[in-house]
């Protein structure tokens, strides 16, 4: 048998490769033709009223999507065999193809006047987007070294998918007015998380914060400078409230006491406020938890210090978690982890009433601004209304509407109470009807100490997930305070407080990032009328 030369053998191999490639192409084309023909036969076999041109266009568009995802499926099978992560880049290419094809679907449906089909498609795309956003791969299938790059690709994938689907989905949403939320001032000086924030009712108007660092600080709202430091407690300061008519503060502490102390402040000359970018309440950019504010460098240690209270209230056997003044300021109420709330006479420091009935630790207490009413919240999933308007009768009403700890309940206009809970709901109640709430707000995170703007009937909701959201009394969402690399809270937001008459800051929030923030909230007149 003759021996072939190297050039002849190479030519034969090249010829065989070309023949094999040509056969593969013919098989692929034949397979695609068979598939298209089968799909066409299936459509023709159905009782379809679509014109043939429309059916052909649909087949072509779905064929493109099917081929792309088939290629992606094959690629991922190969990658899984080699123990690598799923091909996110291929998925991104497929989504880009979807972005290219979807406008053709939209134009096709619009040409047929098929509005219902468009809405159905939008709902499916939104559902698929949530599935992709929330999907997690088994950690055992992914390499440890690739985890960081995979998360980056996943984030890019979210952005790409949302951009491609929002073009269609957003076109059918009705736009509404939103609250304009602007960050005005940050108050940095505590060395630990801030539990509570309050605004003085008397002149000069100052901001008060209560912190786990065992101190309470008073701030100039305009300049952000610390004016007074109270260091009389030996435990975490859990609450701060200002007297309705005098320059006196009431603080509750983990040292099982509540202190009443007097302050005298001299406001500094206001400095020009740095410009802050005005942002819609819906804008949000995620950021890392690094670069937290440092409480050592703001000069709070140089402000005057108060060490001794006027009066110390000492009847509790557990942590005093909150305290508030009754109308008139002659009595004060405290709430404790010993499952009781106590009513004190301020002048004599004597215990007037011990309010018992809760089955677990109390979490908050609040008094009515014009009537002798007190509401207490508890971990037993209830809050109770205590009525002291009649000196001879102290009626108690129990509200059972939550499934987890009631973190706070506050009075608002009229006969309404608003309660927030760790069950991720906020409910508006009518005191004349305890059976069911008149409005329910459902959120995605536990709700901490809420506060209501009485004049504009707006509820500020601080959350465990670092968000602050605004709702009206009927449960309609108005805004979400902005969070970005330079604005917003970096840890759990513990409390909110409105200051309706202040021209610069009308909302304050505080959290475990050791800072309080002053906001300017502007509600459009059109939205207020609604």
Describe the structure in brief.
With 530 residues, this protein is α+β, with helices and mostly antiparallel strands. 27% of the residues lie in helices and 31% in strands. The chain has two domains: 31-132 and 147-171, no CATH class; 180-529, Methylamine Dehydrogenase, Chain H (7 Propeller).
Description of the molecule:
Strand 17 and strand 18 form a beta hairpin. The relative contact order is 0.09. The chain folds into two domains: 127 residues, no CATH class; 350 residues, 7 Propeller (Methylamine Dehydrogenase, Chain H). The longest helix has 40 residues. Helix 3 packs parallel to helix 5 and helix 4 packs antiparallel against helix 5. The strands form seven sheets. A five-stranded antiparallel beta sheet has the order 9-1-30-29-28, with no helix packed on it. The chain is of the alpha+beta class. The chain has six helices and 30 strands. The N and C termini lie far apart (97 Å). The C terminus is likely disordered.
């Amino acid at each position: 048998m003759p021996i072939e030369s190297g050039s002849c053998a190479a030519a034969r191999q090249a010829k065989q490769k070309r023949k094999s490639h040509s056969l593969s192409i013919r098989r692929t084309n034949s397979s695609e033709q068979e598939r298209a023909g089968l799909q066409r036969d299936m459509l023709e076999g159905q009782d379809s009223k679509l014109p043939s041109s429309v059916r052909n266009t649909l087949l072509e568009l779905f064929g493109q999507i099917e081929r792309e995802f088939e290629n992606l499926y094959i690629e991922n099978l190969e990658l899984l065999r080699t123990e690598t992560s799923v091909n996110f880049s291929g998925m991104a290419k497929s989504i880009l193809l979807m972005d290219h094809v979807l406008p053709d679907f939209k134009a096709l449906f619009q040409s047929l006047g098929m509005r219902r089909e468009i809405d159905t498609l939008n709902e499916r795309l939104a559902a698929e987007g949530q599935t992709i956003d929330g999907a997690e791969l088994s950690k055992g299938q992914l390499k440890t070294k690739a985890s960081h790059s995979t998360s980056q690709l996943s984030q890019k994938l979210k952005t790409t998918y949302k951009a491609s689907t929002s073009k269609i989905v957003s076109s059918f949403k009705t736009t509404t007015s939103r609250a304009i939320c602007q960050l005005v001032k940050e108050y940095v000086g505590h060395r630990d998380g801030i539990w509570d924030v309050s605004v003085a009712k008397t002149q000069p108007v100052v901001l008060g914060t209560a912190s786990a660092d065992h101190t309470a600080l008073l701030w100039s709202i305009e300049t952000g400078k610390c004016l007074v430091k109270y260091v009389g407690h030996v435990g975490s300061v859990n609450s701060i409230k200002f007297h309705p008519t005098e320059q006196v503060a009431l603080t509750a502490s983990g040292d099982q006491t509540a202190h009443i102390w007097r302050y005298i402040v001299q406001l500094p000359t206001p400095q020009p406020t740095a410009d802050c970018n005005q942002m819609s309440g819906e804008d949000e950019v995620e950021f890392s938890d690094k670069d937290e504010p440092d409480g050592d460098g703001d000069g709070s240690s140089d402000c005057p210090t108060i060490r001794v209270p006027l009066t110390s209230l000492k009847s509790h056997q557990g942590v005093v978690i909150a305290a508030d003044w009754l109308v008139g300021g002659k009595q004060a109420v405290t709430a404790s982890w010993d499952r009781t709330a106590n009513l004190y006479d301020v002048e004599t420091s004597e215990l007037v009433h011990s309010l018992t009935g809760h089955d677990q630790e109390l979490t908050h207490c609040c008094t009515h601004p014009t009537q002798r009413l007190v509401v207490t919240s508890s971990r037993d999933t209830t809050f109770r209304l205590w009525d002291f308007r009649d000196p001879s009768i102290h009626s108690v009403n129990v509200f059972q509407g939550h499934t987890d700890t009631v973190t706070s309940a506050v009075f608002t206009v009229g006969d309404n109470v608003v309660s927030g809970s760790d069950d991720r709901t906020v409910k508006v109640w009518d005191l004349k009807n305890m059976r069911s709430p008149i409005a329910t707000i459902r959120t995605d995170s536990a709700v901490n100490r809420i506060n209501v703007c009485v004049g504009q009937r707006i509820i500020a909701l601080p959350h465990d997930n670092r968000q602050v959201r605004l709702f009206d009394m009927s449960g309609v969402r108005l805004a979400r305070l902005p969070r970005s690399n330079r604005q917003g809270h970096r840890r759990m937001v513990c409390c909110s407080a409105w200051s309706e008459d202040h021209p610069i800051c009308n909302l304050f929030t505080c959290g475990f990032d050791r800072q309080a923030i002053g906001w300017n909230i502007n509600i459009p007149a059109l939205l207020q009328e609604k």
